[in-house]
Write a structure and sequence with these properties.
One of its GO terms (molecular function) is carbohydrate binding. This protein is an alpha+beta fold. The protein is built from 4 helices and 10 strands. A hairpin with a 5-residue loop joins strand 4 and strand 5. The longest helix has 26 residues.
Length: 226
């Protein structure tokens, strides 16, 4: 054979032998090296973009379900936010939140926002008749989304707690001074809602001085069926 061909075959054999040795080493040591780690991300074609879900949730919702995300307030500094079907219903930016209880109502069949004269209630006030009336007037099939900010329990009485329980709350009877609470319930719900989070105000575990950490809950609420 010509010298050039011999040199090429020797080089090829050397490369194949080196590849075989490296492959055997990594297989035996239990490690794996991907093409991306060898070449680097910049040399590979970009992968498909991550899908964006409604309300910036981690997962999408099935058909006949509404996407939602509820975030409680953080101490008495950062206000809560409520998102439903990719629409921000309440937030600091919208200037429609307040200390106490923040509540949004949505039509459980169509997903349309229901307008009410007030959507946040200062729970330090001795008279919470307005909140009682608000809860009494919720119609069957209405979805309610609620988030606390600062304190929502100081003036909460047994009547109000019973009304929230009827909407599917499991934790409202435990709600105390400066606890954080996020909740999605519905008028006419049979049983308790699976969409509820509660964290106690505890000096030993509080993230903030005098307040627990904020709560964030996302999920897919089923559409009301006839």
């Amino acid at each position: 054979l010509p010298p050039g061909v011999i040199r090429f075959l020797v080089l090829l054999a050397t490369l194949l032998g080196s590849w075989f040795i490296v492959q055997m080493y990594f297989e035996r040591s239990g490690r794996a090296i991907s093409l991306r780690s060898w070449l680097g991300d910049s040399l590979l074609p970009p992968g498909p973009p991550h899908p964006r879900h409604k309300c910036e949730n981690k997962k999408g919702c099935p058909v006949d379900h509404f996407a939602f995300r509820i975030t409680s307030g953080a101490a008495n500094v950062v206000g809560p936010s409520i998102c439903f079907e990719d629409r921000i219903l309440m937030s600091t930016a919208k200037n429609n939140i307040g200390r106490g209880l923040n509540i949004a109502l949505v039509n459980g069949e169509l997903g349309a926002v229901l307008l009410k004269p007030s959507s946040f209630f200062l729970m330090l006030h001795p008279d919470i008749t307005q909140l009682e009336t608000f809860l009494h007037e919720i119609k069957d099939g209405t979805i309610m989304l609620a988030a606390t900010y600062d304190d929502a329990a100081t003036k909460m009485n047994d009547k109000v707690r019973a009304l929230f329980s009827a909407l599917g709350s499991r934790y409202v009877n435990q709600l105390s001074f400066r606890d954080n609470w996020v909740f999605l319930g519905a008028k006419g719900l049979k049983g308790k809602s699976p969409f509820e989070e509660h964290i106690k105000n505890d000096q030993e575990t509080n993230k903030y001085d005098g307040w627990p950490e904020l709560l964030e809950m996302e999920g897919c609420a089923p559409r009301k069926q006839d």
